[in-house]
UniProtKB/TrEMBL annotation, chain A:
Coiled coil: none annotated. It comes from Actinoplanes auranticolor. This is TatD family hydrolase. One of its GO terms (molecular function) is hydrolase activity, acting on ester bonds. The keyword Hydrolase applies. Keywords: Hydrolase, Metal-binding. Belongs to the metallo-dependent hydrolases superfamily.
UniProtKB/TrEMBL annotation, chain B:
This is Sugar phosphate isomerase. It comes from Actinoplanes auranticolor. It comes from the Bacteria. NCBIfam families: EboA_domain.
Length: 282, 202
Protein backbone atom coordinates (compact mmCIF):
# COMPACT_ATOMS: atom_id res chain seq x y z
CA UNK A 1 0.00 0.00 0.00
CA UNK A 2 1.54 3.36 -1.05
CA UNK A 3 0.22 6.37 0.77
CA UNK A 4 0.23 10.10 0.05
CA UNK A 5 -0.95 11.98 3.14
CA UNK A 6 -2.43 15.17 1.67
CA UNK A 7 -2.63 17.02 4.99
CA UNK A 8 -0.21 16.53 7.88
CA UNK A 9 1.64 19.03 10.09
CA UNK A 10 5.05 17.38 10.23
CA UNK A 11 6.61 20.41 11.94
CA UNK A 12 4.83 19.20 15.08
CA UNK A 13 5.87 15.57 14.70
CA UNK A 14 8.99 13.68 15.67
CA UNK A 15 11.58 11.98 13.56
CA UNK A 16 10.26 8.68 14.92
CA UNK A 17 6.95 9.49 13.20
CA UNK A 18 8.75 9.88 9.88
CA UNK A 19 10.39 6.52 10.44
CA UNK A 20 7.08 4.82 11.26
CA UNK A 21 5.31 6.48 8.33
CA UNK A 22 7.99 5.37 5.87
CA UNK A 23 7.91 1.84 7.27
CA UNK A 24 4.13 1.73 6.71
CA UNK A 25 4.09 2.93 3.11
CA UNK A 26 3.78 6.71 3.42
CA UNK A 27 5.91 8.02 0.54
CA UNK A 28 4.63 11.57 0.12
CA UNK A 29 3.07 14.26 2.30
CA UNK A 30 1.68 17.75 1.94
CA UNK A 31 2.07 20.02 4.96
CA UNK A 32 -0.40 22.90 5.05
CA UNK A 33 0.57 26.04 6.94
CA UNK A 34 -1.68 26.41 9.96
CA UNK A 35 -1.40 27.65 13.52
CA UNK A 36 1.03 26.27 16.05
CA UNK A 37 -0.99 26.26 19.27
CA UNK A 38 0.65 29.45 20.47
CA UNK A 39 -0.69 32.43 18.50
CA UNK A 40 1.94 34.39 16.54
CA UNK A 41 2.10 38.14 16.79
CA UNK A 42 3.96 39.34 13.68
CA UNK A 43 4.60 38.45 10.02
CA UNK A 44 8.27 37.64 10.72
CA UNK A 45 7.21 34.57 12.69
CA UNK A 46 5.29 33.40 9.62
CA UNK A 47 8.26 34.04 7.32
CA UNK A 48 10.44 31.76 9.44
CA UNK A 49 7.65 29.16 9.55
CA UNK A 50 7.14 29.29 5.77
CA UNK A 51 10.92 29.03 5.25
CA UNK A 52 10.92 25.90 7.37
CA UNK A 53 8.09 24.40 5.29
CA UNK A 54 10.06 24.88 2.06
CA UNK A 55 13.54 24.31 3.54
CA UNK A 56 14.20 22.23 6.61
CA UNK A 57 11.06 20.08 6.68
CA UNK A 58 11.39 18.70 3.10
CA UNK A 59 15.02 17.92 3.92
CA UNK A 60 14.04 16.14 7.12
CA UNK A 61 11.38 14.13 5.25
CA UNK A 62 13.86 13.19 2.52
CA UNK A 63 16.06 11.45 5.10
CA UNK A 64 13.29 8.86 5.31
CA UNK A 65 12.56 8.71 1.58
CA UNK A 66 9.39 10.79 1.96
CA UNK A 67 8.59 13.60 -0.50
CA UNK A 68 7.37 16.72 1.27
CA UNK A 69 5.43 19.61 -0.27
CA UNK A 70 3.62 22.50 1.38
CA UNK A 71 0.56 24.69 1.09
CA UNK A 72 1.02 28.22 2.40
CA UNK A 73 -1.46 30.79 3.69
CA UNK A 74 -2.53 32.98 6.56
CA UNK A 75 -4.80 30.62 8.49
CA UNK A 76 -8.30 31.77 9.44
CA UNK A 77 -7.67 31.75 13.17
CA UNK A 78 -4.69 34.11 13.03
CA UNK A 79 -6.27 36.19 10.27
CA UNK A 80 -8.27 37.71 13.13
CA UNK A 81 -5.19 39.34 14.68
CA UNK A 82 -4.50 42.65 12.93
CA UNK A 83 -0.80 42.27 13.78
CA UNK A 84 -0.65 39.27 11.41
CA UNK A 85 -2.38 40.82 8.42
CA UNK A 86 0.99 41.64 6.86
CA UNK A 87 1.32 37.92 6.13
CA UNK A 88 -0.93 38.50 3.12
CA UNK A 89 1.79 40.77 1.68
CA UNK A 90 4.47 38.11 2.25
CA UNK A 91 2.54 35.36 0.48
CA UNK A 92 3.12 36.29 -3.19
CA UNK A 93 6.86 35.77 -2.79
CA UNK A 94 6.32 32.34 -1.25
CA UNK A 95 3.61 31.18 -3.64
CA UNK A 96 6.23 31.15 -6.44
CA UNK A 97 8.34 28.49 -4.71
CA UNK A 98 8.70 25.02 -6.24
CA UNK A 99 7.62 23.16 -3.10
CA UNK A 100 4.33 25.04 -2.77
CA UNK A 101 1.49 23.05 -4.32
CA UNK A 102 -1.57 24.97 -3.08
CA UNK A 103 -2.77 27.98 -1.11
CA UNK A 104 -3.93 26.79 2.30
CA UNK A 105 -5.21 26.32 4.88
CA UNK A 106 -7.67 29.10 4.22
CA UNK A 107 -11.36 29.30 5.15
CA UNK A 108 -13.25 29.94 8.34
CA UNK A 109 -12.69 29.52 12.05
CA UNK A 110 -15.20 31.84 13.72
CA UNK A 111 -16.69 33.32 10.52
CA UNK A 112 -15.69 36.92 11.25
CA UNK A 113 -15.39 39.80 8.76
CA UNK A 114 -11.58 39.57 9.03
CA UNK A 115 -11.79 35.91 8.03
CA UNK A 116 -14.09 36.79 5.11
CA UNK A 117 -11.51 39.24 3.85
CA UNK A 118 -8.47 36.95 4.22
CA UNK A 119 -10.36 34.01 2.67
CA UNK A 120 -11.42 35.98 -0.42
CA UNK A 121 -8.00 37.61 -0.84
CA UNK A 122 -6.26 34.23 -0.71
CA UNK A 123 -8.66 32.56 -3.16
CA UNK A 124 -7.73 35.41 -5.51
CA UNK A 125 -4.04 34.62 -4.91
CA UNK A 126 -4.70 30.96 -5.75
CA UNK A 127 -6.21 32.02 -9.06
CA UNK A 128 -3.41 34.41 -9.97
CA UNK A 129 -0.64 31.94 -9.02
CA UNK A 130 -2.50 29.07 -10.76
CA UNK A 131 -2.54 27.03 -7.58
CA UNK A 132 -5.26 24.83 -6.07
CA UNK A 133 -6.71 25.85 -2.70
CA UNK A 134 -6.99 23.83 0.51
CA UNK A 135 -9.92 25.02 2.59
CA UNK A 136 -10.34 24.28 6.29
CA UNK A 137 -13.90 24.01 7.63
CA UNK A 138 -14.68 25.27 11.13
CA UNK A 139 -15.01 22.96 14.11
CA UNK A 140 -17.89 24.98 15.54
CA UNK A 141 -21.05 25.50 13.50
CA UNK A 142 -19.54 23.26 10.81
CA UNK A 143 -22.55 22.81 8.54
CA UNK A 144 -23.28 26.54 8.34
CA UNK A 145 -19.57 27.22 7.94
CA UNK A 146 -19.32 24.74 5.10
CA UNK A 147 -22.28 26.30 3.27
CA UNK A 148 -20.77 29.75 3.64
CA UNK A 149 -17.37 28.39 2.52
CA UNK A 150 -18.89 27.00 -0.65
CA UNK A 151 -20.61 30.33 -1.37
CA UNK A 152 -17.31 32.21 -1.06
CA UNK A 153 -15.54 29.64 -3.27
CA UNK A 154 -18.26 30.02 -5.92
CA UNK A 155 -18.07 33.83 -5.78
CA UNK A 156 -14.28 33.81 -6.15
CA UNK A 157 -14.43 32.29 -9.63
CA UNK A 158 -11.90 29.54 -8.88
CA UNK A 159 -12.79 26.23 -10.52
CA UNK A 160 -14.39 23.93 -7.92
CA UNK A 161 -12.15 21.08 -9.14
CA UNK A 162 -9.15 23.08 -7.89
CA UNK A 163 -10.51 23.38 -4.35
CA UNK A 164 -10.40 20.79 -1.55
CA UNK A 165 -12.76 21.38 1.36
CA UNK A 166 -11.36 19.59 4.38
CA UNK A 167 -12.37 18.10 7.74
CA UNK A 168 -15.74 16.90 6.41
CA UNK A 169 -18.11 14.48 8.08
CA UNK A 170 -21.40 12.70 7.38
CA UNK A 171 -23.32 15.98 7.68
CA UNK A 172 -21.18 18.12 5.37
CA UNK A 173 -19.94 15.65 2.70
CA UNK A 174 -23.04 15.91 0.49
CA UNK A 175 -22.87 19.69 0.20
CA UNK A 176 -19.27 19.55 -0.95
CA UNK A 177 -19.82 16.64 -3.33
CA UNK A 178 -22.58 18.62 -5.07
CA UNK A 179 -20.35 21.71 -5.37
CA UNK A 180 -17.74 19.93 -7.51
CA UNK A 181 -15.01 20.58 -4.93
CA UNK A 182 -12.78 17.80 -3.60
CA UNK A 183 -13.86 16.22 -0.30
CA UNK A 184 -11.21 16.00 2.42
CA UNK A 185 -11.49 13.84 5.54
CA UNK A 186 -9.21 14.00 8.54
CA UNK A 187 -9.02 10.68 10.35
CA UNK A 188 -8.50 11.29 14.04
CA UNK A 189 -8.24 8.97 17.04
CA UNK A 190 -11.45 10.31 18.60
CA UNK A 191 -12.89 13.38 16.94
CA UNK A 192 -13.23 14.48 13.31
CA UNK A 193 -13.53 11.13 11.47
CA UNK A 194 -12.64 7.48 12.13
CA UNK A 195 -11.57 4.66 9.78
CA UNK A 196 -14.88 2.74 10.11
CA UNK A 197 -16.94 5.89 9.46
CA UNK A 198 -14.68 6.70 6.47
CA UNK A 199 -15.41 3.27 5.00
CA UNK A 200 -19.15 3.95 5.22
CA UNK A 201 -18.75 7.35 3.54
CA UNK A 202 -16.79 5.85 0.64
CA UNK A 203 -19.42 3.11 0.33
CA UNK A 204 -22.05 5.82 -0.01
CA UNK A 205 -20.17 8.39 -2.12
CA UNK A 206 -17.56 6.39 -4.06
CA UNK A 207 -13.85 7.10 -4.43
CA UNK A 208 -13.96 10.06 -6.82
CA UNK A 209 -12.68 13.42 -5.49
CA UNK A 210 -12.10 11.90 -2.03
CA UNK A 211 -8.97 12.83 -0.04
CA UNK A 212 -8.12 11.00 3.19
CA UNK A 213 -5.58 12.55 5.54
CA UNK A 214 -4.33 12.21 9.10
CA UNK A 215 -4.10 15.98 9.73
CA UNK A 216 -1.70 14.92 12.48
CA UNK A 217 -0.35 17.89 14.44
CA UNK A 218 0.54 18.80 18.02
CA UNK A 219 -2.83 17.60 19.33
CA UNK A 220 -4.13 14.09 19.93
CA UNK A 221 -3.65 12.68 16.44
CA UNK A 222 -1.94 9.80 14.66
CA UNK A 223 0.07 9.93 11.42
CA UNK A 224 -0.69 6.26 10.70
CA UNK A 225 -4.48 6.58 10.57
CA UNK A 226 -4.28 6.87 6.78
CA UNK A 227 -2.76 3.38 6.84
CA UNK A 228 -5.50 2.15 9.18
CA UNK A 229 -8.13 3.55 6.84
CA UNK A 230 -6.54 1.69 3.92
CA UNK A 231 -6.68 -1.55 5.90
CA UNK A 232 -10.29 -0.90 6.89
CA UNK A 233 -11.22 -0.33 3.24
CA UNK A 234 -9.58 -3.62 2.21
CA UNK A 235 -11.31 -5.46 5.08
CA UNK A 236 -14.65 -4.03 3.91
CA UNK A 237 -14.12 -5.52 0.45
CA UNK A 238 -12.66 -2.61 -1.51
CA UNK A 239 -9.96 -3.61 -4.00
CA UNK A 240 -6.28 -2.70 -3.73
CA UNK A 241 -6.88 -0.45 -6.75
CA UNK A 242 -9.69 1.40 -4.93
CA UNK A 243 -7.38 1.95 -1.96
CA UNK A 244 -4.55 3.12 -4.22
CA UNK A 245 -6.89 5.60 -5.86
CA UNK A 246 -8.03 7.10 -2.54
CA UNK A 247 -4.68 7.06 -0.75
CA UNK A 248 -2.32 7.85 -3.64
CA UNK A 249 -3.77 8.74 -7.04
CA UNK A 250 -6.41 11.18 -5.75
CA UNK A 251 -3.97 13.44 -3.87
CA UNK A 252 -1.55 13.22 -6.81
CA UNK A 253 -4.35 14.35 -9.13
CA UNK A 254 -5.48 17.17 -6.84
CA UNK A 255 -2.09 18.69 -6.01
CA UNK A 256 -0.75 17.78 -9.47
CA UNK A 257 -2.93 20.61 -10.75
CA UNK A 258 -0.23 22.95 -9.41
CA UNK A 259 2.22 21.60 -11.99
CA UNK A 260 4.79 21.52 -9.19
CA UNK A 261 4.36 18.11 -7.61
CA UNK A 262 7.73 16.35 -7.74
CA UNK A 263 7.41 12.66 -6.94
CA UNK A 264 10.77 11.59 -8.30
CA UNK A 265 12.38 9.23 -5.84
CA UNK A 266 14.47 10.85 -3.19
CA UNK A 267 18.11 10.01 -3.74
CA UNK A 268 19.89 9.33 -0.46
CA UNK A 269 23.30 10.12 -2.01
CA UNK A 270 22.23 13.65 -2.87
CA UNK A 271 21.19 14.44 0.66
CA UNK A 272 23.91 12.51 2.43
CA UNK A 273 21.33 10.28 4.12
CA UNK A 274 22.51 8.66 7.28
CA UNK A 275 24.00 11.97 8.32
CA UNK A 276 23.13 14.31 11.12
CA UNK A 277 19.48 13.50 11.64
CA UNK A 278 19.86 9.77 11.67
CA UNK A 279 22.79 10.28 14.00
CA UNK A 280 20.92 12.51 16.39
CA UNK A 281 21.83 16.01 15.28
CA UNK A 282 24.98 18.07 15.56
CA UNK B 1 32.61 25.28 -14.77
CA UNK B 2 32.66 28.93 -15.82
CA UNK B 3 29.67 31.09 -16.66
CA UNK B 4 30.51 30.58 -20.34
CA UNK B 5 30.51 26.80 -19.83
CA UNK B 6 27.07 27.07 -18.25
CA UNK B 7 25.83 29.28 -21.10
CA UNK B 8 27.10 26.75 -23.62
CA UNK B 9 25.57 23.82 -21.74
CA UNK B 10 22.20 25.58 -21.68
CA UNK B 11 22.29 26.54 -25.37
CA UNK B 12 19.87 23.89 -26.53
CA UNK B 13 17.88 22.87 -23.44
CA UNK B 14 14.09 23.11 -23.33
CA UNK B 15 13.18 26.36 -21.61
CA UNK B 16 16.07 28.28 -23.19
CA UNK B 17 13.63 30.87 -24.59
CA UNK B 18 12.14 31.38 -21.15
CA UNK B 19 15.63 31.93 -19.78
CA UNK B 20 16.59 34.43 -22.48
CA UNK B 21 13.45 36.39 -21.73
CA UNK B 22 14.12 36.19 -17.96
CA UNK B 23 17.70 37.45 -18.40
CA UNK B 24 16.44 40.37 -20.50
CA UNK B 25 13.86 41.24 -17.86
CA UNK B 26 16.42 41.17 -15.05
CA UNK B 27 18.69 43.42 -17.13
CA UNK B 28 15.99 46.05 -17.60
CA UNK B 29 14.30 45.70 -14.19
CA UNK B 30 16.27 44.00 -11.37
CA UNK B 31 13.11 44.01 -9.20
CA UNK B 32 11.73 41.16 -11.33
CA UNK B 33 14.57 38.84 -10.27
CA UNK B 34 12.86 37.23 -7.24
CA UNK B 35 9.97 35.44 -8.97
CA UNK B 36 12.14 34.56 -12.00
CA UNK B 37 14.82 33.06 -9.76
CA UNK B 38 12.14 31.04 -7.92
CA UNK B 39 10.60 29.71 -11.16
CA UNK B 40 13.85 28.95 -13.02
CA UNK B 41 14.18 25.34 -11.91
CA UNK B 42 10.71 24.24 -12.92
CA UNK B 43 11.10 26.08 -16.24
CA UNK B 44 14.52 24.62 -17.07
CA UNK B 45 14.26 21.29 -15.24
CA UNK B 46 16.31 19.28 -12.79
CA UNK B 47 18.23 17.15 -15.30
CA UNK B 48 21.99 17.10 -14.73
CA UNK B 49 23.93 19.05 -17.34
CA UNK B 50 26.17 17.07 -19.66
CA UNK B 51 29.74 17.06 -18.44
CA UNK B 52 29.12 18.02 -14.82
CA UNK B 53 26.74 16.21 -12.51
CA UNK B 54 26.93 19.01 -9.93
CA UNK B 55 24.93 21.33 -12.20
CA UNK B 56 21.34 20.86 -13.27
CA UNK B 57 19.79 22.97 -16.01
CA UNK B 58 17.73 24.83 -13.40
CA UNK B 59 20.69 25.53 -11.14
CA UNK B 60 22.77 26.75 -14.09
CA UNK B 61 19.93 29.03 -15.18
CA UNK B 62 19.83 30.47 -11.68
CA UNK B 63 23.59 31.10 -11.81
CA UNK B 64 23.16 33.04 -15.06
CA UNK B 65 20.36 35.11 -13.52
CA UNK B 66 22.65 35.97 -10.59
CA UNK B 67 25.46 36.93 -12.97
CA UNK B 68 23.05 39.15 -14.88
CA UNK B 69 21.93 40.75 -11.64
CA UNK B 70 25.54 41.37 -10.55
CA UNK B 71 24.43 43.26 -7.45
CA UNK B 72 25.81 41.80 -4.19
CA UNK B 73 22.94 43.04 -2.02
CA UNK B 74 20.29 41.64 -4.36
CA UNK B 75 22.15 38.32 -4.56
CA UNK B 76 22.25 38.13 -0.76
CA UNK B 77 18.51 38.85 -0.64
CA UNK B 78 17.75 36.09 -3.16
CA UNK B 79 19.59 33.64 -0.92
CA UNK B 80 17.83 34.87 2.21
CA UNK B 81 14.41 34.69 0.55
CA UNK B 82 15.12 31.40 -1.21
CA UNK B 83 14.03 27.84 -0.56
CA UNK B 84 16.73 25.20 -0.08
CA UNK B 85 17.30 24.70 -3.83
CA UNK B 86 17.59 28.45 -4.44
CA UNK B 87 20.08 28.77 -1.60
CA UNK B 88 22.12 25.88 -3.00
CA UNK B 89 22.12 27.56 -6.41
CA UNK B 90 23.45 30.81 -4.91
CA UNK B 91 26.18 28.95 -3.02
CA UNK B 92 27.20 27.03 -6.16
CA UNK B 93 27.32 30.26 -8.18
CA UNK B 94 29.33 32.32 -5.67
CA UNK B 95 32.78 31.41 -7.08
CA UNK B 96 31.59 32.46 -10.55
CA UNK B 97 30.32 35.88 -9.49
CA UNK B 98 32.28 39.07 -9.15
CA UNK B 99 31.08 40.03 -5.66
CA UNK B 100 34.22 40.03 -3.49
CA UNK B 101 33.55 39.06 0.12
CA UNK B 102 29.84 39.92 0.02
CA UNK B 103 28.85 36.24 0.00
CA UNK B 104 30.67 35.35 3.22
CA UNK B 105 27.60 35.84 5.46
CA UNK B 106 25.77 33.36 3.23
CA UNK B 107 28.45 30.71 3.85
CA UNK B 108 28.19 31.42 7.57
CA UNK B 109 24.41 31.01 7.38
CA UNK B 110 24.72 27.73 5.46
CA UNK B 111 27.26 26.39 7.96
CA UNK B 112 24.82 27.10 10.81
CA UNK B 113 22.14 24.88 9.25
CA UNK B 114 21.68 21.19 9.77
CA UNK B 115 21.12 20.58 6.05
CA UNK B 116 24.10 18.54 4.81
CA UNK B 117 23.65 19.88 1.26
CA UNK B 118 24.01 23.49 2.44
CA UNK B 119 26.95 22.72 4.72
CA UNK B 120 28.77 20.93 1.90
CA UNK B 121 28.01 23.72 -0.59
CA UNK B 122 29.46 26.31 1.82
CA UNK B 123 32.88 24.63 1.62
CA UNK B 124 33.36 24.89 -2.15
CA UNK B 125 35.87 27.21 -3.87
CA UNK B 126 34.27 30.39 -2.50
CA UNK B 127 35.22 29.22 1.02
CA UNK B 128 38.63 30.72 0.23
CA UNK B 129 36.98 33.89 1.61
CA UNK B 130 36.25 32.23 4.98
CA UNK B 131 38.55 32.88 7.93
CA UNK B 132 40.53 29.89 9.21
CA UNK B 133 38.50 29.36 12.41
CA UNK B 134 35.16 29.25 10.58
CA UNK B 135 36.60 27.00 7.88
CA UNK B 136 37.98 24.51 10.45
CA UNK B 137 34.60 24.39 12.21
CA UNK B 138 33.03 23.69 8.82
CA UNK B 139 35.37 20.81 8.11
CA UNK B 140 34.80 19.23 11.53
CA UNK B 141 31.05 19.69 11.08
CA UNK B 142 31.33 17.71 7.81
CA UNK B 143 33.02 14.88 9.69
CA UNK B 144 30.37 15.07 12.39
CA UNK B 145 27.50 15.01 9.88
CA UNK B 146 29.00 12.28 7.69
CA UNK B 147 29.52 14.59 4.71
CA UNK B 148 32.35 13.25 2.53
CA UNK B 149 35.40 15.51 2.79
CA UNK B 150 35.63 15.50 -0.99
CA UNK B 151 33.05 18.31 -0.68
CA UNK B 152 35.73 20.57 0.81
CA UNK B 153 37.70 22.61 -1.73
CA UNK B 154 41.52 22.72 -1.26
CA UNK B 155 41.25 20.52 1.84
CA UNK B 156 44.91 19.57 2.11
CA UNK B 157 46.12 23.10 1.26
CA UNK B 158 44.24 24.63 4.16
CA UNK B 159 44.24 21.84 6.75
CA UNK B 160 46.58 22.85 9.57
CA UNK B 161 47.71 21.52 12.95
CA UNK B 162 44.82 23.23 14.72
CA UNK B 163 42.41 21.24 12.55
CA UNK B 164 44.45 18.14 13.34
CA UNK B 165 43.96 18.81 17.04
CA UNK B 166 40.19 19.16 16.59
CA UNK B 167 39.98 15.95 14.54
CA UNK B 168 42.11 14.13 17.06
CA UNK B 169 39.80 15.21 19.90
CA UNK B 170 36.77 14.06 17.91
CA UNK B 171 38.48 10.73 17.22
CA UNK B 172 39.01 10.28 20.98
CA UNK B 173 35.34 10.96 21.69
CA UNK B 174 34.31 8.53 19.00
CA UNK B 175 36.67 5.88 20.35
CA UNK B 176 35.29 6.38 23.88
CA UNK B 177 31.77 5.88 22.52
CA UNK B 178 32.78 2.84 20.49
CA UNK B 179 31.94 4.64 17.26
CA UNK B 180 34.02 4.88 14.10
CA UNK B 181 35.47 8.00 12.53
CA UNK B 182 34.72 8.28 8.81
CA UNK B 183 37.64 6.83 6.84
CA UNK B 184 38.33 10.06 4.97
CA UNK B 185 38.68 11.96 8.28
CA UNK B 186 41.05 9.36 9.68
CA UNK B 187 43.10 9.56 6.49
CA UNK B 188 43.24 13.36 6.72
CA UNK B 189 44.31 13.17 10.36
CA UNK B 190 47.05 10.68 9.42
CA UNK B 191 48.32 12.96 6.65
CA UNK B 192 48.42 15.91 9.05
CA UNK B 193 50.21 13.87 11.72
CA UNK B 194 52.83 12.66 9.23
CA UNK B 195 53.34 16.22 7.97
CA UNK B 196 53.77 17.49 11.52
CA UNK B 197 56.28 14.75 12.41
CA UNK B 198 58.43 15.43 9.35
CA UNK B 199 58.26 19.20 10.05
CA UNK B 200 59.53 18.62 13.60
CA UNK B 201 62.26 16.28 12.40
CA UNK B 202 63.47 18.77 9.76
Amino acid sequence: MRIFDPHIHMTSRTTDDYRAMAANGVQAVVEPAFWLGQPRTNPGSFADYFDSLIGWEPYRAAQFGIRHHATLALNPKEANDPRCRGVLDLLPRYLDKDGVVAVGEIGYDSMTPAEDEAFAAQLALAISYELPALVHTPHRDKAAGTRRTLDVVAESGIEPGRVAVDHLNEVTVGLVRDSGCWMGFSIYPETKMSPPRMVEIIKAYGTERILVNSAADWGHSDPLLTVETGKALLAAGFTADDVDRVLWRNPVEFYGQSGRLDLSETTPGATFAGSSIARGGS
Amino acid sequence: MTLDDLRAALAAVPGREWLDDALARVRTDPDTAGPLFARAERKLGREPLAGDGAWTAGRAARALLLAELADPQRIVTLYQQGDAAERLAVLAALPLLDIGDAGVPLLQDALRTNDARLVAAALGPYAAHLDAATWRQGVVKCVFMGIPLSAVDRLDDRADQELAGMLSALAQERAAAGRRMPDDATALLNRLTVADTSRKQA
